[in-house]
Design goal:
Layout (H helix, E strand, L loop, with lengths): L1 H32 L2 E9 L22 E3 L11 E3 L8 H25 L14 E12 L5 H11 L5 H16 L5 E12 H16 L2 E9 L2 E4 L9 H4 L2 H7 L4 E11 L11 H12 L6 E9 L9 H7 L4 E2 L1
Parallel strand pairs: 1-6
Antiparallel strand pairs: 1-9, 2-3, 4-5, 4-8, 5-10, 6-7, 8-9
Helix pairs in contact: 3-4, 4-8
Length: 327
Amino acid sequence: MRKKLQQTIKPLLKPFFVLSLVLALAFSHADGALAASGGRIGGGSFRVPSSRSYTPRTYAPPGGGGYYAPYPGGGGFGFPFLLPFWGIGGGFGGLFTILIFFAIANFLVQSFRRVSSGGETEDVNYGSNPSVSVTRLQVGLLAQARDLQPELNRIAETADTNSPEGRAEILQEASLALLRHPEYWVYAGGGTQQAKLNSAESQFNRLSLAERSKFSEETLTNVNNQLKAALNKEALPPAGELDNPTRLISEGPGEYIIVTLLAATLGKFDIPTAINSADELRQALRQIGSIPSDRLLALEVLWTPQAEGDTLTSDDVLAEYPDLRLV
């Protein structure tokens, strides 16, 4: 009876072990597939200058007597403050007329600037905890966009992340790098969250950490002008694939590059959450790339994979970036 039972079970053992081996390999591959290198460029500060720190300059009027200073704060009607130290009767009328003329001219210039800025009436009050827009824009491209990774590497290696102008240039160059590869766009996603200045930094850091946690290692970073690069550990395919190059060809474009742009901006700024077409993505990239330096508080550019030979599969994208949509 026992021998008969062994003869019955024995043919079933081989398929069972084969199935167990396949499942083990599949799950071990899935665990390793979610580990890809990443690059990061970032910098900025969630502090804005106080308008009270402005020290007005004084000007000596023609004739050498007295002085006047612009109205503190730089805005308003712009009448000067006059301290005449010499005879009121002697030339005061002519001097007073000149000062009135300059005050009216200053008022007209300020009004023209407000109108020419597009009718924007929202003034950032630095002393009252202004609103900040925290924006995230993500683009998924086919890995055939081989020029994109070296271009992002170059930006990281040469960028000035400490100055407002340098950070604005980084955001512009990264947006341009993505705009130059529209034929490889596959996925996109975005969104903007509003926060007050005193809580915007934690919101920004939370989004940054969520993206960085998807990397196995940050192999190239430039944060606050601190450039760091890991040793070049080129990721090689399994030995079986080296002997079968036609397998890679038959699988087609199964690798991707994900680029994330994070920006904290003073005032109102909005990127749509749902980006459903290439035209909408193009508009979003142009919008985020044109943020002026005086509005940009902080930024981060993150991309994966960064290391040469590293890959990001379609399974990785589905698992780690479920919010992205096809464009």
